[in-house]
Design a protein that fits this description.
This protein is of the alpha/beta class. 27% of the residues lie in helices and 15% in strands. The chain has helices at residues 2-30, 101-104, 133-138, 152-165, 186-194, 196-207, 268-281, 291-301; strands spanning 66-67, 86-87, 96-97, 106-110, 142-147, 169-173, 211-214, 218-220, 238-242, 257-264, 310-312, 331-333, 355-362. β2 and β3 form a beta hairpin. α6 (196-207) runs antiparallel to α7 (268-281) and α7 (268-281) crosses α8 (291-301).
Length: 364
């Protein structure tokens, strides 16, 4: 009897704590504590229904700030600054950094190796002209990827899936001699990964249209309607697959990125984040670090969470069969293989590089 009473007491306490948590979250939302642009599941407009053959061109998001000339290297504008302190929402392991408004208005450029900001000349940028004419004519975004010779079959599989669902995509071959190394070596792999944000940045700057990146081992199973205009209501600068999007106590303000798929809009803010990501990967201490964890450092510790309008992609946009057996995929991860089965991971922990100089944006 004592054991039963103890069990019922524990159950009642658990129920009351969950009710208290839900009440607290409702109050936070009513006060604006959970920003709309951090919601992970959008409400689709009728114009963006799955499989729609007529789409509205993606409208460039209006810039929040007007850029001025950058400050001299090594100097800082005269604004109030402070060391960012973590605001913890119930879990000390996942701090949420809230910068001052003056800090949000500063767009940092980070210390880096200038040579690593030059894309290897052996890598040819893809063109929307590589797509079939009917796909190119109706496309409002351009899907790209890179691959090496060992992944030729998966590159063909990705391109076939693009054509099957009606997506304009193109891939770029990275020759085995690129980066002054040899395919299959740790150096080649680390430089390949470090070049991803720079590659996407150069494609964005050349074609000035929204860009979607897919790792070469992914494939489309249906048309990705969330990359179309109007799918999220308010236009988004960046769409990312975030492992921690639905962790309630983080309020959608912490990123743990899976970089297999992401969307970069043709906005000044999105381009600024790509530049920062490429610079961070070109920082000496990060040259062999994972690209997704480096993005995490920028967003979580560098204040970028408040500089852009993000959207967190749902699980069906990077469906891993072992983890999501009941989810119908839009984008499938390496069909038939466990995550991480091919190749090997990078174990170097990235750091947020020192700020080299800043570009000041006037607050509206």
């Amino acid at each position: 009897m004592i054991g039963l009473a103890l069990f019922l007491t524990i159950g009642l306490l658990f129920l009351l704590s969950n009710i208290a948590l839900m009440v607290w979250l409702d109050r936070q939302r009513s006060r604006g504590g959970v920003p709309f642009h951090m919601e992970s599941e959008p409400v689709l407009n009728k114009s963006s229904e799955l499989g729609s053959s007529t789409t509205t061109p993606l409208v460039k998001a209006p810039p929040r700030h007007q850029p001025s000339a950058p400050t001299e290297i090594g100097t800082q504008p005269k604004v109030a600054t402070r060391k960012l302190k973590p605001t913890v929402h119930g879990n000390r392991h996942y701090p949420v950094y809230t910068p001052l408004p003056e800090e949000i208005a500063l767009i940092p450029h980070y210390e880096h190796d200038p040579d690593m900001m030059e894309l290897d000349p052996a890598i040819i940028l893809p063109s929307p002209g590589d797509c079939a004419p009917q796909l190119r004519a109706n496309s409002t975004f351009f899907t790209v990827s890179m691959y090496s010779f060992r992944y030729q079959a998966k590159a063909e599989r990705l391109k076939a899936s693009c054509e099957a669902v009606g997506v304009c995509c193109a891939t770029s071959l990275v020759p085995s001699h690129a980066f002054g190394s040899k395919e299959g070596t740790p150096f080649f792999r680390s430089r390949f990964i470090a070049s991803k944000p720079l590659f996407v940045l150069r494609v964005l700057q050349k074609w000035r249209m929204p860009i979607v990146w897919l790792d070469i081992d992914l494939e489309f199973f249906s048309y990705p309607d969330l990359f179309e205009a109007g799918a999220w209501g308010e236009s988004r600068d960046v769409l990312i697959w975030n492992w921690q999007a639905n962790v309630s106590n983080l309020l959608g303000r912490r990123l743990k990125m899976a970089s297999g798929v992401f969307f970069i809009n043709a906005t000044e803010r999105a381009e600024a984040l790509l530049v920062a990501w490429a610079e961070a990967m070109a920082f000496a201490n990060n040259s062999a670090a994972p690209d997704d964890q480096t993005m995490d450092e920028l967003v979580n510790k560098g204040g970028w969470i408040d500089r852009l309008v993000f959207g967190w992609l749902p699980a069906r946009y990077l469906r891993m069969s072992a983890r999501h057996p009941a989810i119908v995929p839009v984008i499938e991860h390496d069909r038939g293989n466990m995550p991480g089965q091919n190749g090997y991971g990078l174990n170097f922990k990235p750091v947020l590089p020192p700020v080299n100089y800043t570009v000041h944006f006037s607050l509206p």
